[in-house]
């Protein structure tokens, strides 16, 4: 049981490049979400999904796209990377119904130069 | 915007001492959760307290919740060097499906 798996762990992009951060979970959780963490800050929500085919925006969605074609996968796409997107990105999953803790991946550290 | 605000921002204690961290939040919640993050790692769920609960225990952890003051505290008893980490409180709202809103965290250093 791997939990939440994120790839890659590290990435350097040039401004304007695009890329996809991968996230997969094997716990059959309905809910998945993406957060970014900047120095001295807590985590801020980018996008989330309550099930396959259903996504919604969080607090800081600009510059990011998501899709949820399967229960297991929830990729995050950076359309045209900007230095302001330099951050550590975390994917999380949790069970439907509320009052359950979230399971987080180990993160992707992204640097945009 | 940040929902929870932890206090203190940093805490340094000796092994064996107790560590207390506080969290305040702004809106109505379904539950409040505490997470630990070791340097450079992902977040690990520690404990969840529902809005209708006032206190909860898990091993060396004790969490209290005061919804009238919109505040919570996390107590770690008999701290160990391995408890050195950042601790975050996060709230889950009470309207429909709600995601977690995090505070900025407390950095705890436990010295041998």
Structural class of chain A: mainly beta
Distance between the termini of chain B: 37 Å
What is the helix tally of chain A? 0
Order of helices and strands of chain B: EEEEEEEEEEE
N→C terminal distance of chain A: 36 Å
Note the run of SSEs of chain A as H and E. Answer: EEEEEEEEEEE
Strand content of chain A: over 45%
Largest sheet of chain B: 6 strands, mixed
Q: Determine the fraction of residues in helical runs of chain B and give it as a percent range.
A: under 10%
Please name the two chains that share the biggest interface, counting residues whose Cβ lies under 8 Å from a Cβ on the partner chain.
Answer: A-B, 26 and 26 residues
From the alpha-carbon coordinates, what is the Rg of chain B to the nearest angstrom?
A: 13 Å
Strand residue content of chain B: over 45%
Rg of chain A, Cα atoms, Å: 13 Å
- Global geometry of chain A: globular
Main sheet attributes: strand count, strand direction, barrel closure of chain A: 7 strands, mixed
- Helix content, binned percent of chain A: under 10%
Structure description:
The complex is a heterodimer of chains A (113) and B (112). Chain A is an all-beta fold. In chain A, strands 2, 4, 5, 6, 9, 10 and 11 form a seven-stranded mixed sheet that branches. Chain A has a four-stranded antiparallel sheet with strand order 1-3-8-7, with no helix packed on it. In chain A, 35% of the residues are buried. Chain A has strands at 4-7, 10-13, 19-25, 31-37, 43-51, 54-57, 64-66, 76-78, 87-94, 103-104, 108-112. With 112 residues, chain B is an all-beta fold. Helices cover 0% and strands 58% of the residues of chain B. Chain B has no helices and eleven strands. Chain B has strands at residues 5-7, 10-14, 19-24, 29-37, 43-50, 55-58, 61-66, 71-76, 85-93, 100-102, 106-111. In chain B, the strands form two sheets. In chain B, strands 2, 4, 5, 9, 10 and 11 form a six-stranded mixed sheet that branches. Chain B has a five-stranded antiparallel sheet with strand order 1-3-8-7-6, with no helix packed on it. At the A-B interface, strand 4, strand 5 and strand 10 of A face strand 4, strand 5, strand 9 and strand 10 of B.
């Amino acid at each position: 049981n791997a939990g939440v798996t994120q790839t890659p762990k590290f990435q350097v992009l040039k401004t304007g490049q695009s890329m996809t951060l991968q996230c997969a979970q094997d716990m059959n959780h309905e809910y998945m979400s993406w957060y970014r963490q900047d120095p001295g800050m807590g985590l801020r929500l980018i996008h989330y999904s309550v099930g396959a085919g259903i996504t919604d925006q969080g607090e800081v969605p600009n510059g990011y796209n998501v899709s949820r074609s399967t229960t297991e996968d929830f990729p995050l796409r950076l359309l045209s990377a900007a230095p302001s997107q330099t951050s550590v990105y975390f994917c999380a999953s949790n069970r439907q119904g509320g009052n359950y803790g979230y399971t987080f991946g180990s993160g992707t550290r992204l640097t945009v130069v | 915007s940040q929902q929870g605000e932890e206090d203190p921002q940093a805490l340094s204690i000796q092994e064996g001492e107790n560590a207390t961290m506080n969290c305040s939040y702004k809106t109505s919640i379904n539950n409040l959760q505490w997470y630990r993050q070791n340097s450079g790692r992902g977040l690990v769920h520690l404990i969840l307290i529902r809005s209708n609960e006032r206190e909860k225990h898990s091993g060396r952890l004790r969490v209290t919740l005061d919804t009238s003051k919109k505040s919570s505290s996390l107590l770690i008893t008999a701290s160990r060097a391995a408890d050195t980490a950042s601790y975050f409180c996060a709230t889950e709202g009470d309207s429909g499906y709600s995601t977690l809103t995090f505070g900025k965290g407390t950095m705890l250093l436990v010295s041998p």
